[in-house]
Amino acid sequence: MSSAIAARKARLAQSGEAQNTPGPAPTPATALKPTITTPTAPETPKSLGKSSSKRKSNSQVPLLSPEKQKRVKHKEKRPRYFSSNGDAFTKQQDVIVIEDEESSSSEENEQIVSLAASVSEDGMRTKSKRAWSPSNAFYDSSDDEAKNVTINDLLDIPVRTLPLQPSTSVALSTFQAIQDKNFLRLTREDTIKLGLLPSHNEDDVSVLLALAPGETVSLLGVYNLTVLAGFVSLCGTTLSASPIAHRVFAPRSSPIPVIKSMPSDSSDVRSDIPEFTRQIVRQGGSLVVLGEVTSHVEGLGRICRTFDGVFTPSRWQHGDTDVLGIKGAYLIRQPSRDIQTFSLPDSWDACLSSVTSETTETKTPVCLVKGPKNAGKSTFARTLLNRLLMRYSKVAFLECDLGQSEFTPGGMVALNVVDTPVFGPPFTHLSIPTRAHYVGSSTPRPSPSHYLSSIHALLQTYRLDIQFSADPDVESKSPKIADVIPLVVNVMGWTKGLGVDITRKIEEMVEPTDIFEFEVPVTEYVPSPHRRPAEGSDARLYTLEPIEPSVLSTNFSASDHRTISMLSYFHAVFPPVSLSSETSVLASPMVSSWNVSLPLCAQMPYEVALAEAFDRVYVTGAGSEDVIHAELLRVLNGAVVGLLTCDQGGLDIDLDMDDTPNDVIPYTRGAAPPSPLSSHCCGLALIRGVSETKSGVHLHILTSVSPVADARVLIKGELELPVWGMLDFRSEEGGSVAGVEKTMVPYLRWGREEGRGGERRRVRRNLMRRGQM
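and the corresponding structure tokens:
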């Protein structure tokens, strides 16, 4: 490098007038390679871009393409030779010529060249690697031909790097437990003195937390929450002081709720609370009691290994998570990659407040929630249900989403009446619906007419039997409205093609007073007339912003949630339904606990005679018309079926049965299911086995609905039992099922299918209609 500098100084000394004499006119070959004028003694990279010459510099260089950059880097590695014919530096593309001072060293020149090359290479790297934020534009080398970039532009281009993690993350729990200051362990006697219902299990632990205004507590697991004083915000709902204990389910598969103390003006302080907590209540704080819950819901992770350990902290959580001492509830202080917290957007809160704060004396609130999938539609509908329960004693919930049902497994259109808020994902609060109809598929595509007729029948049931069912006892005891029951309708997320027409039909049948619509992404085609309220409707339309899918769930898909809901239903234990009064008929009993001690293959089933217990068997769905009478038992064996109850005279008994005696199998090939106006679905059942004896065909049935004798019709749809339900979690490493080697277990094939057609079939559903072009 020193020899090159000496040769350059010698050449400049021989031609002293070279700097004052203008150079020859550029040839066409050199005209495409203009030079860049730079300062003589740069100190910082940004100062290098300022020119010391007063002349207007017309030397601008376009950013080099990736191919040219490779050649430039290759030329930098080759040694530089000088000839007497001219200066070799002026013939290079990436060299900056120094015009005014000879003291500029080649190291400074190479610094400028390397800086420009690094900026150009950064632009090339930014093109190949996606930027960390879609809102930030990145440099594209395809713009080289569109504009020329000066040295100032080169040096001011920011380097695209991933954002650094903050040194201090946001704390999920700001509450610090201090014994006899803001924290107290309660005995069974203390619980009774506070007016709370004691737990059935004497070993259950309860703790009292005194939360200052704004303090938060984030718990992972299962626990009971009771508010003694003040107000608490939970999942977008404000809970006031009440002796009611709310069950909260907070697995890692869904956003966990955050308990936040809301400021309150508490002039009257209870005398039965501890002395050290009264000062916090006077300052606007709140008192909550957290208790243990014995529901065995954690055992569902043993059955469905996808959800194994979702109620316990993962290895990403550090610190003392069981500081409160509540079994099954873990304190989470810092966020991690596998935990998302529930956060209510401001636009959601504004819409919810405008609906729940207004008093409507003439119209009962009928709210319809619609929008695309993965936008937070089900989460908003659940929050709206909880908000309405703050003003009304009961709220009806019509589930129209077959794939992601809120209170039932998939494949059912159900009408539930809820009287307590629900906190947790759908598989933790399954219920026996007040009225339901079985469609047998996760989408209405196979039978849209039966799907719409089922919704129409449920709306008639709501308007005739539920909407104005007054409860004078509740009305006199509670300040909530009890003479009317509002309705929340959750529509499916199918917003393309036929789904748009079905959604419009549902909106016309529901006649809502309020419509909550999520914005559809611009990539999805939705005709604008269908996004408005129906003609003649005076419904108020609220537009909501969708939530990012990563905020709603953590590494769990909709198919995973359908699987856990199905398995949770067959292992659920529902409380007995009392028919002693008319008011209890409206209640939809929710699951109280789960029986996870035995797999489905080891539980005791019901054994019924097919010809004596059921009047008719139906098979619906794609390909159902090809099921002949001789293959019916093969279809029913191991199938998930719906148990239907038909009104008297609602079942057509004059249908031909394929020339088969009626006392064998009551089945008609290709027959349509009973009308939803004269039937309803009691629940789902699993036919675990079919046996043929001399006395007839006997079925072994597993179901959570009791008794089975009320259902006289079986209907088989497209839904199947998940593979997890066929396995035996008691065997180590899954080597056997109920003592039978796994290779000998029927209906299960281990390994990959071989041969043509053995792979999973892929169906294209992104074809557009002519009107959508």
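(Above: one complete record from the training split.) The CA atoms of residues 329 and 470 lie 39 Å apart.
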